[in-house]
Design brief:
The protein is built from 14 helices and 15 strands. By secondary structure, it is of the alpha/beta class. It has four domains: 114 residues, 3-Layer(aba) Sandwich (Rossmann fold), CATH 3.40.50.11060; 75 residues; 168 residues, Rossmann fold (3-Layer(aba) Sandwich), CATH 3.40.50.300; 58 residues, 2-Layer Sandwich (Alpha-Beta Plaits), CATH 3.30.70. The chain has a six-stranded mixed β-sheet, sandwiched between helices. α5 runs antiparallel to α6. It is elongated.
């Protein structure tokens, strides 16, 4: 396949990279779209793409991943452009990276290392930083060539090399020990988050999920007036942000923003961020946000669905939210998607009317799933009474029986399950809805 060279002038502070895409036998030909996404990833790191090199192959070559003739082409292009950085839109092995660097005279990175670097730069909290460091160490372990001996300084003392132990073995041992310490720290942070979640057991939870840069944070800001910054870059959100959808509703509905997904998201990152993704697993409803203006939005939808299944969230109810409708030129596309996805909304996060409609849709969903019940509880159990007032819509109360309190309520099945020992009857009947003065 042909190579492509960009004639776009670049600011002096930007590095220039050559990106390499490979299409293997049996794969869908999405090379152009894949390299465009890699270009966007690199822009987040202030790296500009100077040229593209693409190749179709039957199978990977163990030495270079691509053929030796293609490596010569990459080397020549790098010399012509004065570039010292080559990035593959694939995951390379340690030997492949070293062979490519020796042959081209350039620094060689792969897609996984780029994503890890973006995560490292965007990590803000201690938990996110710990998660990213664990993932980076897992990635680097099989690629170590003696470059990680600086970890010795983090042990608080020197490390004695055993008889016959090579430097690479020392580096890997240090990395494993570092990862063990980080995982212990992460376990402690996870316990704190679990305690926070326990305090929210009486509330309904909605989680925003979707491909990176699909507009999840913008939707959260628009619907909750949250003081959260939305950025037009990939992986701007790494930590779960939880806000109340509307303080006036009973039970309260919480909305959480989560880390975005991406094609070929490194498995180590998924594992490391599972504690953050627990917000997804504990949700009563997922809002799958899709950038419907993206030319490859269907692939992005499939990627999100695949990751949700991988983390065990495949059975949670989903509301499809097709976002960035203001950027869609084809008026027929929303009609086609609406026919295919009955339970969906088409919005722009920048339109107040769209956000109000989406908020109503969420509240209506929970209204339709609330169950009417009668509760009987001790009148002096203040903790239990507080939980009922917070988590249920109170239809009526009766304190006429000494030391007992009886409530007619509407509540989510999950809430009634937690209060099961106090439920004396369930009933179906008309329901006038959650109180929502803002809609």
């Amino acid at each position: 396949m042909n190579r492509e060279v960009s004639n776009q002038a670049r600011p002096p502070e930007l590095r220039t990279a050559i990106i390499v895409g490979v299409l293997l036998a049996g794969e869908d030909d999405t090379l152009s779209e894949d390299l465009s996404e890699l270009t966007q990833l690199l822009a987040t790191l202030k790296i500009q793409v100077g040229g593209r090199v693409m190749q179709k192959r039957q199978k990977v070559t163990p030495r270079f991943f691509v053929g030796e003739g293609k490596v010569d082409e990459i080397k020549q292009l790098a010399q012509e452009l004065g570039s010292k950085l080559v990035i593959f839109d694939r995951t390379l092995s340690g030997p492949q990276v070293r062979n490519l660097e020796e042959h081209t005279g350039c620094e060689v990175q792969d897609r996984t290392s780029v994503i890890l670097e973006i995560f490292a730069r965007h990590a803000r909290t201690a938990q996110a930083k710990t998660q990213v460091e664990i993932a980076r160490l897992e990635y680097l372990m099989p690629r170590m060539t003696g470059a990680w001996s600086h970890l010795e300084r983090q042990r608080g003392g020197g490390v004695q090399r055993g008889m016959g132990e090579k430097q690479i073995e020392v580096d890997r041992r240090l990395a494993r020990e570092r990862m063990s310490r980080l995982r212990r720290q992460l376990d402690g942070m996870q316990k704190d988050r679990q305690n926070q979640r326990k305090a929210r057991l009486s509330e309904l939870k909605v989680a925003l999920v979707g491909y990176t840069n699909s507009g999840k944070t913008s939707i959260m800001i628009a619907m909750t007036k949250a003081n959260v910054q939305a950025e037009d870059v990939l992986f701007a959100t790494l930590d779960s942000n939880v806000r109340t959808l509307d303080p006036s509703t009973r039970p309260k509905v919480l909305l959480s923003d989560t880390v975005g997904f991406i094609r070929n998201l490194p498995h180590g990152l998924i594992e490391s961020f599972k504690s953050t993704l627990d917000e997804v697993l504990e949700a009563d409803l997922l809002l799958h946000v899709v950038d419907v203006s993206h030319p490859n939005f269907r692939v992005q939808m499939q990627t999100t669905e695949d990751v949700l299944r991988e983390i065990g969230a495949g059975d949670i109810p989903v509301l499809m939210v097709f976002n960035k409708l203001d950027k869609v030129a084809d008026p027929v596309l929303p009609k086609i998607l609406k026919a295919a996805y009955k339970n969906s909304e088409f919005v722009s996060a920048h339109r107040d009317d769209d956000m109000a409609r989406l908020r109503r849709h969420i509240i209506q969903y929970f209204e339709e799933n609330l169950v009417r019940a009668t509760l009987d509880v001790p009148a002096d159990d203040q903790g239990l009474l507080s939980q009922i007032y917070k988590s249920c819509l109170i239809l009526g109360t009766d304190f006429s029986v000494q030391d007992r309190a009886r409530f007619e309520v509407r509540a989510a099945p999950a809430i009634l399950a937690k209060l099961h020992s106090h439920v004396i009857s369930l009933a179906e009947g008309p329901f006038q809805g959650l109180k929502d003065s803002k809609l």
